UniProtKB/TrEMBL annotation:
<feature type="transmembrane region" description="Helical">
    <location>
        <begin position="78"/>
        <end position="96"/>
    </location>
</feature>
<feature type="transmembrane region" description="Helical">
    <location>
        <begin position="108"/>
        <end position="131"/>
    </location>
</feature>
<keyword id="KW-0472">Membrane</keyword>
<protein>
    <submittedName>
        <fullName>DUF6691 family protein</fullName>
    </submittedName>
</protein>
<dbReference type="InterPro" id="IPR046513">
    <property type="entry name" value="DUF6691"/>
</dbReference>
<keyword id="KW-0812">Transmembrane</keyword>
<keyword id="KW-1133">Transmembrane helix</keyword>
<feature type="transmembrane region" description="Helical">
    <location>
        <begin position="38"/>
        <end position="57"/>
    </location>
</feature>
<dbReference type="Pfam" id="PF20398">
    <property type="entry name" value="DUF6691"/>
</dbReference>
């Protein structure tokens, strides 16, 4: 029962994604064609909220649901890993018309064809897990 609030937040997130058209293939297509500000506005707002949330978590040493202090592990900075990862992610996003967040929203909205995208995302995650130790990090 203590995780019910997270399920409710996920449902609300899905509704907001769908109603704001952030899960719309057409809106994503417009974004990649630089024809509309709609998706850039949504992502910019999410980025600002994420930065603010991270700042507040660090400043007030907020705790997780388990009562442990949330700590952020610094990552090694590398141009190539972010460039290659971004290119692969962006190509997948452009080809599928969906990034990982809206996949579940679209499935919930009844778009059965997005199950192929979900399977591809899960397969890619599995393959990464197998190859992780061999990849440059």
């Amino acid at each position: 029962m203590k995780y019910l609030k997270f399920l409710l937040i996920g449902i609300i997130f899905g509704i907001v994604m769908f109603k704001s058209e952030a899960a719309s293939w057409f809106r994503i297509y417009e974004m990649f064609q630089f024809q509309s500000f709609h998706m850039y506005g949504i992502m910019g707002s999410a980025l600002a909220l994420g930065v603010l949330g991270t700042y507040l978590i660090k400043k007030y040493k907020l705790k997780s649901i388990d009562g442990k202090i949330i700590q952020f592990t610094p990552k090694e900075k590398s141009f190539s890993r972010y460039m290659y990862g971004g290119i692969i992610f962006g190509l997948g996003w452009a080809l599928a018309g969906s990034c990982p967040g809206p996949i579940y929203t679209l499935i919930g909205a009844g778009y059965a064809s997005i199950l192929v995208v979900l399977l591809g995302a899960l397969l890619g995650t599995f393959i990464y897990g197998l190859l992780r130790d061999k990849l440059p990090h």
